[in-house]
Amino acid sequence: MIEAEPMQMRLLAAEAVAREAGALARKRFQDSSFTVGLKGPQDYLTEVDGETEDLIYSRLHAAFPDDGFIGEETGGREARSGRPTWVVDPIDGTTNFAHGVPHFCVSIGCVLEKEIEIGVIYDPMRHELYSGRRGLGARLNGEKLRTSNATSLAESTLEVGWNARGGSHKYVELVRHVALWGAAPFRTGSGALGLAYVAAGRRDGYLEHHIRAWDCVAGILLVREAGGYVSDFLANDGLANGNPLIACAPGVKEAIVTAAPIEGIVL
User: Nearest 5°: CA angle at 130, between 124 and 136?
Assistant: First the structure.
C-alpha cells in the first residue's frame, strides 16, 4: 500500500518533470532541428519523442527507482505488480509537432493496481499545466477544473479520436453519428489534450474506437476528478492493450453511451 504522502510526492514530481520535458519539446519544436519518420501509416515519430521520454524516465526513475514505467517510445520497461507504474507519452500529438502545428503535450499518468492515481498533462506552447490526484480534484495552473454543463448533444462539441488500428470506416461512422446527433465533431490530433479539454469544459466529450494507455491515462484521471464520466478503460488489460473510450460531461453521458457505435466498450 502506497501512503498518501508518497503519492503526493509523485504528483509534485510529475508536475515538475512534465514542465521540464515540455520545455525541451518546445525548444526543439521552435528550432525545427529534428528528423521525422513513420512507425506506420499516419503514425509519426521524431527524435524528440525519444529524447523527451528518456528525460522523463531518468527523472522519475531517480526519484522512485522501484516504480514501473510504460512509455510509448521505449521497450523493456514495464508495469510492476504492487508498485505504482508511470504511463507516459512524451509528445502526444506528434503528427502536429512534426508538421509545425503547436498543439501537442506531455502526458504523465500513474497507475497503482487497477486505479489511476495521478494525471498530469502539460501543454508547453500555451504554458498550461493540467494536474490531478484521485479523490482530490483536478486543476489547470492551480485553478479547479469542472466539466461543462452541457445537457444536450445538439449543444455539444465532441472530440473524435482517430487511429489506424480501428479502421477508417469505423472512424467515419463515428463522426457521422456525432454529426447526426447534432453535435459538432472535432479532431485536433492529441488524445491527451482532447481529454484535458473535456476536464476543463472546453469540449463536452471525447470518443475513440481504440486508444492506448499512454495517450489517455492522465486525461482519464483529470476528467473523473473534474466531475465527468469515463468508461472503464483499464478493463480487460487496457493498460497493456488499449481499449475503446468514452469521456464526457455528466449531462450528456446517457445520450452518448446509448447511441455511440463503439464495439467492446466497458461502461
Answer: 160
Q: Integer distance in angstroms from the first to the last C-alpha of the chain?
A: 27
Cell 464526457 belongs to residue: 248
Which three three-digit cell numbers place residue 136?
482530490
The DSSP H or E segment spanning 116 is: strand 115-123
Q: Which domains does the chain have, with CATH numbers?
A: 4-144 (3.30.540.10), 153-259 (3.40.190.80)
Read off the pLDDT of residues 83-141 as tens digits, 9 standing for 90 and up.
999 999 999 999 999 999 999 999 999 999 999 999 999 999 999 999 999 999 999 99
CA–CA gap between residue 68 and residue 77 (Å, rounded): 7
Residue 230, SS3?
strand
Measured between alpha carbons, how far is 260 from 246 in angstroms, rounded to an integer?
Answer: 9
Burial of residue 2, with CB atoms counted within 10 A of its CB: 0-12 exposed, 13-18 middle, 19 or more buried: middle
